[in-house]
Design the sequence.
């Protein structure tokens, strides 16, 4: 049996889970989310626990067993505490600003890059060089943060660009210093 899949998902206080057909609906203080369950996986809500089992010993079912359990745990954690990604903008004159539901990025291009914020996410700019992406869906938070970073990835010579907080960029020597 899968080491991750056989562990039950514990529901914290204030979180509810319901099975509706081939979906599990999880609700909490931060929001609600649902996950489709494959036919070969069985999910049961017993009291304050969610138990995930599989119907057969096929390779696909074994891999889905642990994956579905991990996704359910991620959803429970998301609707309870939420997920957050922070990004730093490094560069002279580079900045970010929220205008309504649109994130405006000034990154040295001839134009301002406008990025509409997806539903379910909160984006804040506590200062012009910091972007905070917050939400209850781990995948959405990570995906939007990666999109922001992709607009101007950190270049290795001067270190300019958008990076995650705490990310270290290994700088390269310039052409004149490399022998």
Sequence:
């Amino acid at each position: 049996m899968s080491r991750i899949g056989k562990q039950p998902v514990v529901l914290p206080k204030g979180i509810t889970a319901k099975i509706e057909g081939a979906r599990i609906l999880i609700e909490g203080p931060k929001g609600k989310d649902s996950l489709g369950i494959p036919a070969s996986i069985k999910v049961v809500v017993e009291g304050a626990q969610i138990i995930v089992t599989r119907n057969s010993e096929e390779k696909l079912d074994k891999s889905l067993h642990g994956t579905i359990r991990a996704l359910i745990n991620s959803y429970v954690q998301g609707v309870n505490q939420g997920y957050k990604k922070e990004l730093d903008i490094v560069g002279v004159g580079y900045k970010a600003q929220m205008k309504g539901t649109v994130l405006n990025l000034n990154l040295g291009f001839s134009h301002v890059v406008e990025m509409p914020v997806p539903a379910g996410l909160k984006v804040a700019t506590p200062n012009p060089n910091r972007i905070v992406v917050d939400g209850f869906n781990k995948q959405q938070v990570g995906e939007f943060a990666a999109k922001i970073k992709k607009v101007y990835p950190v270049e290795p010579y001067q270190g300019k660009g958008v990076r995650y907080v705490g990310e270290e960029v290994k700088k390269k020597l310039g052409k004149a210093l490399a022998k």
About this structure: The mean pLDDT is 92. The radius of gyration is 21 Å. The helical segments are 59-80, 138-151.
